């Protein structure tokens, strides 16, 4: 095998079709969490030669199908073929072997690499319309667009597939076993997309796989639509495994929700654009305040627990921001090239400045200067200390005590306002497509998948690819370089400290401490912070 192939096979269960067609087993591919014969006797269309025996280095990271463990499941023709709106569409159904490439930037000798099954309606469905009993649950933090996805799942099931039994699970995962369900109809959800939040309620914690699957089984639910972030998708994967173990005809579909944009593989999560848009209002306010006061500093804290995408994109969009601090890019306060020096430069040069800080930035600095509290939320996510308040105080103290300068710092914390708003128009369309892709996948018998755009095309992605890591800003990528060039802020890093391992979770700390050691910043800095 060509050694270059290894970089394309990020999952340990990936199957390599790189060998010549005659050499490999054409019916094998990666079906979610286990390797299966997905081609024989399972009622599914066989994969065409183009998928399995075509060009070299083609990997399909496929999702499970109900017929993988229920081989005698009968298929029916998709009712959409008689639907007045869709039947006129040329090629409305996706081809059975359509796949979406994970890598679209290639060289003339590149392997074809990893692909995901393309989302969309299939000619064959594995559920009769009147047999479907679907449920929808929303888990984790809020995100603009949740209600739109709920609405579009309900309306899509009703209007595209004639499904009339859809219920909502109240209050996140624990609602499966602790609450009654809410009947959902196109009428009851008609206006919900105009509201922020989730009409179903949400929660952290409370994931009990056995109790949840008992409830699904007991209620006769056979399609489960799960809206949530990385934690939720882990929970969805556990639910799917238990359903498969029990041999139930229940499709489990995940719809990725995260305002932090921390879910990997997909291009972007819904609500993210709304959040960036809403953040502009806070940044503009910070700019106005800072411009109007002598030595004004406007400081805005935005969400981003481990990933700084909202801060980065809001900064790039605004152009009013002079410094953006994110969890992925360590920084330091004092000394040459530090934040304080840069603030002083901006104030002297322009008379004011705007700083955007993501909530997860600078946590390692804070823990050096204040008592560290190792707290978690009910889902096990690390609870951060308020970096906005902390850094405001650090800046004020430094300029008052060390520089004898009067500064006017205005701290704006719009975090919950940003995620509680209704989604903007482009997110509404995105939510609609996600909901419809999820419905088509479940009706076609796929299960154990998350739906999302990969290079602009919706795909079914196995859970393990979604939950194996978090999506982070790569500070050696062009986007971060664009940000640095737009704000003119220091990178806070010596180039030699930036390695390929930069997304290692310990790297922030390593980078900061190695920088300090080499530049003798530690003594001066940490003591002063204390
Ligand atoms: N590893 C896990 N296994 C099973 N369930 C999980 C796991 N991590 C989180 N969950 C559940 O998923 C739900 C949402 O997780 P959380 O991390 O709060 O939000 P998000 O899904 O937005 O990341 C919670 O109900 C939590 O109990
Ligand atoms: O206060 P809450 O509701 O726990 O939410 C805070 C967290 O929720 C988020 O907005 C999103 O997190 P999730 O996507 O994991 O739900 C984070 O940015 C933030 O740290
Ligand atoms: Mg999360």
TrEMBL record:
Can you cite a GO biological process for this protein?
fructose 6-phosphate metabolic process
- Give the reactions, separated by semicolons, that this protein catalyses: beta-D-fructose 6-phosphate + ATP = beta-D-fructose 1,6-bisphosphate + ADP + H(+)
Which residues are listed for ATP binding in this entry? Answer: 141, 204-205, 229-232
Broad EC category: transferase
Task: Name its pathway.
Answer: Carbohydrate degradation; glycolysis; D-glyceraldehyde 3-phosphate and glycerone phosphate from D-glucose: step 3/4
Gene Ontology terms: cellular component: cytosol
Q: Which InterPro entries match?
A: ATP_PFK, PFKA, Phosphofructokinase_dom, PKF_sf, PyroP-dep_PFK_TP0108
The UniProt GO MF terms for this protein read: 6-phosphofructokinase activity; ATP binding; metal ion binding
Gene3D superfamilies named among the record's database cross-references: 3.40.50.450
Primary localisation category: cytoplasm
Please verify whether the record's keywords include Transferase: yes
Q: Where is this region: Disordered?
A: 1-20
What cofactors are annotated for this protein? Answer: Mg(2+)
Binding residues for substrate: 258-260, 303-305, 359, 416-419
Q: Which UniProt keywords apply?
A: Allosteric enzyme, ATP-binding, Cytoplasm, Glycolysis, Kinase, Magnesium, Metal-binding, Nucleotide-binding, Transferase
Residues of the Phosphofructokinase domain: 135-440
Q: Does the entry feature the keyword ATP-binding, yes or no?
A: yes
Comp. bias (Low complexity): 1-18
Q: Where does Mg(2+) bind?
A: 230
Q: Which HAMAP family match?
A: Phosphofructokinase_II_X
Function (record text): Catalyzes the phosphorylation of D-fructose 6-phosphate to fructose 1,6-bisphosphate by ATP, the first committing step of glycolysis.
Q: What is this protein called?
A: ATP-dependent 6-phosphofructokinase
Q: Which organism is it from?
A: Cucumis melo (Muskmelon)
Name of encoding gene: LOC103489982
